[in-house]
Write a structure and sequence with these properties.
heterodimer, A: about 325 residues, mainly alpha, 13 helices, about 75% helix, B: about 525 residues, alpha+beta, seven-stranded mixed sheet
């Protein structure tokens, strides 16, 4: 197992190097540059443009800029935002907990509804339940997130007034960030009602962000379950007289979980991508919105280092997912 | 024990009573500030969160107008040659006292000199106090070539010595980049090695003082009890950052905020019908235009330009692009600006006459390009749609137009080229309420190859605007600018398209809010009913 982990970590290095090249190249391939965008309609004199390009170091050959960037990375320096002038690493860790909190809640919803829905659909294959659950999953998968988010806001926040419109907590509560996770910080603050307020603010964005992963998990669980339900050992378990719940819940589900866990791991990437839209709709101060703003402003250091940080997160999560395979199914332990 | 319990309960009750009495206004702002030092940035969103709330300037724009009134300076005078401006400072102005700074003295000439010196003097320790400090507005307004030196006459008097006379000087000093900083605070930060805090933990003399900023989420301010013009009526001001237009409106309706800018045009009618809301509106200090390249045939022929202007159906553009939130533009400056020439008549929409004028000019089978901006701006919310409408209008008079576009940075760069192929859709939002800021920047000979997208150089127009710039007589300046607008209309380097109308929905409990013609959002005069 240790050998497997070390091998996987070693593989991360060339992947990360590749990501630095892609992210570094990506922002520079986009037409326009930060100096021109900063000047806007007001324009900028050619001599001053040249001076600012020199000041930012963007007049140097691209390979020189890249190696300088790599050198800075190796020294733990991700650079400063051209816009806010703040270190990228500080901004990332200020905003990242908000995205993680939202993603975890969304994942909990997706898993806790998606897996039972898949199991029910598979156990009652071809029934009304199967068709309606899978039909709903297909609708969820195809849902335009922006429209879906606004629809929920209009219905639940506007008409019914059950949930707040946007933000992370009611503005009445004001306490310093300790962990960056609002649910935890609201509890630590000791302010009455703060936790409930933070929780109520999480409901709609979590549902919106969970929608696509939920649909994928439900469909994947169904197909994996259908596959194992036809296996000999399941038939044997049934023949032994075990209750259907035990056959499905213990014997079939555990084996069906491997592809489902893979999908859950991959959905971390989907969650981060979905967070871009969800965070925009719900004014959620996370990294998705931060990246989009930075791309439109050609904030090179933020885009290249932000992408790198996100890639590291996705890779680490997938590594953890790979490691859990062994826990679920001893036959594929990575010895 | 019981006594202390009752005492505690009493204290809690008192605190609660205080908190109930505190008036809080939540403003759903449209974006995050880039920082809190307005001189480093050019975005209105950043100015709203910094210069409009936290800082004051030597002179100020009177709330709701573009009139320049005293601010940190209680009076000023200029020398006869227009090269020296002397400002007498207001005594007793206090910088904010916060948990991170306690001033030991009142604002004085050192603060004024520091606020500008840091932007123009490479030896000032604050010149590069953050990476890439470019002082873009200060440079964009050509201040380094304008200001020769700033002299401290005495503790409460400063003199700006200029290299050339420039009438809009005082208006320029009312702009956001000219916000006044505390030298004492800056020195303290420099001594403790935390210079970057000048941009993160701001200290000013403005109506509100900074409390906290949670990135991309919330900015909190409280009223400055020592504000020189009187403590604001609201105690706490909160900016709830809400980037999506529709969500801002939902928050307003749910009373999660009381003021929300930039509604979608399609939502305005519904907002106006809501009895809990008040929708204010004002014409924006901007202009959207189509600039021909007057250096390239056949657009070097004034008759061709005028003929094309007659082909454009502006009303259709106002309906389709602005959803009614705009007015047709006649002159290159908006009607709310002083010296706007009301006597000028716009080119009438007359495709038949247009076609005949083109034929008379010997122009048949003309093909051209129309450049459409890739971004939405207040003066042009949908340039692609506008370009398509103009394309159809031109087709009706026998002109084949192709709509073209580039990435925004490239667009701005390529559209400056003197040999550019095609007419460009662009616009301008005023900085200081002075006509010079439109006419000289956008149409002077020195702007050719730069901000003068029509590449139009007309000596008569240039002489008028130059003379106006150097005169300090308001009546004379008005007359000169009015005349310059006549020349502009006669020569038609642009098709003037529209000035936008800005809408500002708010709770009807909000009183005292004034629409800022310069596009900012100010809360010092605002109150909220319980």
């Amino acid at each position: 197992m240790l050998g497997f982990i070390l091998k996987r970590i070693a593989l991360l290095i060339p992947t990360l190097l590749g990501i630095t090249i892609v992210s570094f190249g990506f922002v520079r391939v986009l037409p326009g540059d930060p100096v021109l965008l900063m000047a806007g309609e007001r324009g900028i004199k050619p001599e001053r443009y040249q001076k600012l390009m020199e000041q930012f170091g963007y007049d140097r050959p691209i390979w020189e800029q890249y190696f300088d960037y790599l050198n800075q990375l190796l020294h733990g320096n991700l650079g400063n935002s051209l816009v806010t002038k703040q270190p990228v690493i500080t901004e990332f860790f200020t905003l990242f907990p908000a995205t993680v909190e939202l993603s975890i809640c969304a994942l909990i919803i997706a898993v806790s509804i998606g897996i039972p829905a898949g199991i029910i659909a598979a156990s009652k294959r071809g029934s009304f339940w199967d068709q309606s659950l899978m039909g709903t999953a297909l609708v969820g998968y195809s849902m335009p997130i922006f429209w879906w988010g606004l629809l929920l806001i209009i219905v639940f926040s506007g008409w019914l007034q059950w949930t707040p419109v946007s933000g992370r907590i009611s503005l009445l509560y004001f306490f310093p960030d300790v962990t960056g996770f609002m649910l935890i910080d609201s509890l630590l603050s000791g302010q009455k009602g703060a936790f409930t307020s933070a929780l109520s603010h999480l409901v709609l964005p979590s549902i919106v962000l969970a929608t696509i992963p939920l649909a994928v998990i439900a469909r994947q669980t169904r197909s994996a379950m259908l596959e194992v339900l036809g296996e000999d050992y399941v038939r044997t378990a049934r023949a032994k007289g075990l209750s259907p719940a035990r056959v499905v819940g213990v014997h079939a589900l555990r084996n069906a979980m491997i592809p489902v866990i893979t999908v859950i791991g991959l959905s971390v990437g989907t969650l981060l991508a979905g967070a871009i839209l969800t965070e925009t709709i719900f004014s959620w101060p996370g990294i998705g919105k931060w990246m989009v703003d930075s791309i439109s402003r050609r904030d090179y250091p933020v885009v290249q280092s932000g992408l790198l940080m996100i890639a590291i997160v996705v890779m680490v999560v997938n590594l953890l997912v790979d490691m859990t395979y062994g826990l679920i199914n001893p036959r594929i332990r990575h010895d | 024990m019981k006594k202390s319990l009752f005492a505690s309960l009493g204290l809690v009750a008192m605190l609660m009573a205080t908190s109930v009495q505190a008036k809080t206004l939540v403003y759903c702002s449209e974006g995050s500030p880039e920082g809190f030092d307005p001189a480093l940035y050019t975005a209105g969103t950043t100015f709203d969160a910094s210069s409009k709330t936290i800082y004051s300037r030597l002179a100020e724009f009177e709330n709701g107008t573009t009139n320049v009134i005293p601010g940190m300076a209680e009076s000023w005078s200029s020398s006869a040659d227009g090269l020296e401006y002397t400002f007498k400072l207001r005594p007793g102005v206090k910088f904010h006292t916060t948990d991170y700074f306690t001033p030991t003295r009142d604002m004085n000439a050192d603060d004024i000199i520091f606020s500008f010196d840091r932007q123009m003097n490479e030896d000032n320790p604050y010149f590069q106090y953050v990476d890439g400090a470019a002082w873009e507005y200060f440079n964009g307004m050509d201040m380094p070539s304008l200001i020769k030196e700033i002299v401290k006459v005495d503790d409460m008097t400063v003199m700006f010595v200029l290299n050339k006379p420039e009438s809009p000087t005082v208006a320029n000093l009312a702009m956001d980049f000219a916000s006044i900083f505390s030298k004492e605070y800056a020195d303290q930060l420099a001594a403790s090695g935390n210079m970057g805090d000048l941009n993160q933990k701001p200290i000013g003399t403005g109506p509100f003082q900074f409390v906290a900023y949670q990135k991309d989420a919330v900015i909190r301010y409280k009223a400055n009890p020592s504000f020189y013009a009187g403590k604001p009526a609201i105690d706490d001001l909160i900016f709830a950052i809400t980037t999506d237009n529709s969500v801002r409106i939902q928050k307003l309706k749910a009373n999660e905020c009381q003021v929300a800018p930039y509604p979608n045009p399609a939502d305005i009618a519904g907002l106006q019908a809501d009895s809990n809301l008040n929708v204010m509106s004002a014409e924006g200090l901007n202009v959207g235009y189509l600039a021909y390249n007057t250096k390239v045939a056949p657009f070097d022929n004034v008759n061709v330009r005028k003929a094309l202007n007659k082909a454009i159906n502006k009303q259709a553009i106002l309906d389709a692009v602005f959803n009614g939130a705009g007015v047709a533009a006649t002159n290159p400056i908006p009607p709310t600006m002083w010296s706007y020439n009301k006597s000028i008549k716009d080119d009438s929409y007359d495709p038949v006459a247009s076609k005949k004028m083109l034929e008379d000019a010997g122009v048949t089978d003309l093909t051209m390009k129309i450049w459409a901006m890739p971004v939405a701006r207040p003066y042009n919310p949908n340039a692609r749609r506008m370009a398509e409408l103009i394309q159809a209008d031109f087709a009706a008079v026998g002109v084949t137009a192709e709509v073209t576009s580039y990435e925004w940075g490239e667009y701005l760069k390529l559209s400056k080229a003197e040999d550019r192929d095609g007419a460009v859709l662009l616009g301008w939002t005023g900085d200081n309420g002075d006509p010079d800021n439109f006419l000289a920047v956008l149409l002077s000979c020195s702007g050719v190859g730069g901000s003068n997208r029509a590449q139009w150089c007309n000596k008569e127009f240039d002489d008028l605007t130059n003379k106006a710039k150097q005169s300090s007589d308001a009546a004379e300046r008005t007359e000169l600018y009015e005349e310059a607008q006549v020349v502009f209309k006669r020569e038609a380097p642009w098709a003037t398209i529209a000035h936008s109308v800005v809408f500002m929905p708010m709770s009807n409990k909000v009183t005292g809010y004034k629409m800022d013609p310069l596009g900012g959002h100010r809360f010092e005069g605002v109150d909220i009913a319980e």
